[in-house]
From TrEMBL:
<dbReference type="InterPro" id="IPR000595">
    <property type="entry name" value="cNMP-bd_dom"/>
</dbReference>
<dbReference type="InterPro" id="IPR018490">
    <property type="entry name" value="cNMP-bd_dom_sf"/>
</dbReference>
<dbReference type="Pfam" id="PF00027">
    <property type="entry name" value="cNMP_binding"/>
</dbReference>
<dbReference type="InterPro" id="IPR014710">
    <property type="entry name" value="RmlC-like_jellyroll"/>
</dbReference>
<feature type="domain" description="Cyclic nucleotide-binding">
    <location>
        <begin position="45"/>
        <end position="148"/>
    </location>
</feature>
<dbReference type="GO" id="GO:0003700">
    <property type="term" value="F:DNA-binding transcription factor activity"/>
</dbReference>
<dbReference type="InterPro" id="IPR050397">
    <property type="entry name" value="Env_Response_Regulators"/>
</dbReference>
<protein>
    <submittedName>
        <fullName>Cyclic nucleotide-binding domain-containing protein</fullName>
    </submittedName>
</protein>
<dbReference type="GO" id="GO:0005829">
    <property type="term" value="C:cytosol"/>
</dbReference>
Length: 190
């Protein structure tokens, strides 16, 4: 499978990388804590976080604005941050072997993107493009480690939810793969 080329810009800090991709800084994401809390009950990642825990989490994040059409996560890039969508809709796309984009998902507020690369440091699996004006909070790996060190209860809770989220996605992918494989493999009874 063809991977997008990596550039020397892959090692930029999250803020610098996002500015380069066209996002604009909005300051601390804690200013959006009430909005995040109001929407948090809709998603498993933050569903049982208290307003105080949301405030703590967002205080470790920087908020950004992305205009419609802005690709703020680029497939193949070596970035170490995840984003929490606060406002707007995002299209997740993957390049095929011929360089054509295929939609993987549509993401709405209080869902996260980029968790895998934040955790494992591997290149981005897909690109994320704002379908409309978006606001999102950014949590880098270094800020996650600070959160775990300085606010261990909130940090551990977030880390556990991230592991559960990634595990759920892996199970869904495995189920889809098994369904696909069962369609491709002739039945043993034939």
């Amino acid at each position: 499978m063809t991977q997008p080329p990596h550039s020397s810009q892959d090692s930029l800090l999250p803020r610098d990388r996002l500015l380069q991709l066209g996002a604009k800084p909005l300051g601390s994401a804690v200013t959006f804590a009430d909005q995040v809390f109001a929407l948090a009950q809709r998603v498993p990642l933050l569903a049982d976080f208290s307003v105080e825990e949301i405030q703590t989490l967002t205080s470790y994040m920087e908020a950004f604005h992305a205009p419609s059409g802005c690709m703020f996560i680029e497939e193949g890039a070596l970035d170490d941050y995840m984003v929490l969508i606060i406002r707007g809709t995002v299209e997740v796309v993957k390049l095929d072997n011929w360089g054509h984009r295929s939609r993987v998902a549509i993401v709405t507020p209080v869902q996260t993107l980029g968790e895998m690369s934040m955790v494992d440091g591997e290149p981005r699996f897909a690109s994320c493009i704002a379908m409309e004006e978006c606001h999102f909070g950014v949590l880098s790996r270094s800020k996650l480690l600070q959160l775990i060190d300085q606010q261990p209860q909130v940090g551990a809770k977030l880390l556990l939810r991230l592991v559960q989220l990634l595990s759920s996605r892996l199970r869904q992918t495995s189920a889809k793969l098994m369904a696909y494989m069962s369609q491709q493999t002739p039945s043993a009874s034939r």
